[in-house]
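Hey, can you fold this one?
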Amino acid sequence: MIPSRFYYPSPGFSIYWESGNGKQLAQRLSGTFPDKAEIEHLVPRLFETDSLADQVIREVYQVHGFKQADAWINDLLEGEKVVNVPASLEQIISEITSKPAWLDEELLEKGATLCRRSGSLGLMVLRNYCLMGGYESSAINKPLVFTGALKKGAAKRLTETTEFWVRIVGKNAITSPQNGLKECLKIRLMHAYARVSILEEGKWQEEDWGSPLNQWDMLATNLGFSIIFLDGLRKLGMKPTEQEVQGLFHFWKYVGTLLGTPSNYFPENESDAIRAIYAWTITQAPADKDTISLALALTLEPIEGPFPSKKWQKRLVYNTHLGYNWYFLGKASCETMQLPKTSWRIHPPIQRFFIRLGQVFVLRSENSYNRSIQRNRKTQKKIVNAYLESHNRKSITDK
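Sure. Predicted structure:
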């Protein structure tokens, strides 16, 4: 069965690939894009979900409660022996704490290093390219609507996503049981809880949307953190090294498996990643009212949220983000999502000029490269911690 959400070729994303920023991204492709017949072979992934995580929700959280479930998880991640634990929970802990044979920890750290070296630029790319760009897909938005994301406001999702990303890209954080592994398991079970809750409500239309938080949409989200993130950094003048690029895909392959997606679904290199994100985007149905509502909520988040605190700062941040939206997403996507026009779209190209100049000095020696990582990670944490503190959340320390 092909759900009605499968819309080939996508009216919105076709423009992205034919004349928008995707056209530049396609120039890095080795080989050709997959055709419709090849892409249709991926349709079953729209109905595939993380059944083990769903089982944990039903057998652990719904039976024993959140407090007991979280206590068990914490003890198991500490390596303690715990009695009377449901088998599904023991299995999922065993899976995430067992390192796969393909994992290259040196390459893994190279990918995390690029994320830290991106500093505040990386945060801008994540918010204004990866997150906002994803809202143009009406189908992937549906679980957000069903779980009340619009009522809760944009700040909650933005805070959770940013905090997750900043925590797991810390030095050697992703393989730490009480850091990266715990963060990934938390997100994985949050997804499963949302999926189970949506299906139990009985209003989900599988014939139209596929399964909620299905494996193809999970892959697309993952690709936002890898290939779209990489494209955004380059658009702002950063020059990732070849090892950083290889490491980035390796890093997000590992994160993706920790989040419950089969490892063989993830691209190993840039060309495969471009083909993968093309296959997903080119089959997306037109944007709808939920697209516009979610985009508006994210746009107004600096104005309506607690950070920054002063009115002039709120207006400055609001316009700055809009400028990046128009720069990354292009005229067609921004008009589709009804994002306000702004003269601030001239800011990113100017910034790009100076960043490109600076990259020459960053990459000229190992010492300058390492200083850049430390300096930008410090800036990254300073910005994010100020944001987290304004939302009464714990700061990130890298310890």
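The mean pLDDT is 95. Let me know if you want another pass with a different chain boundary.
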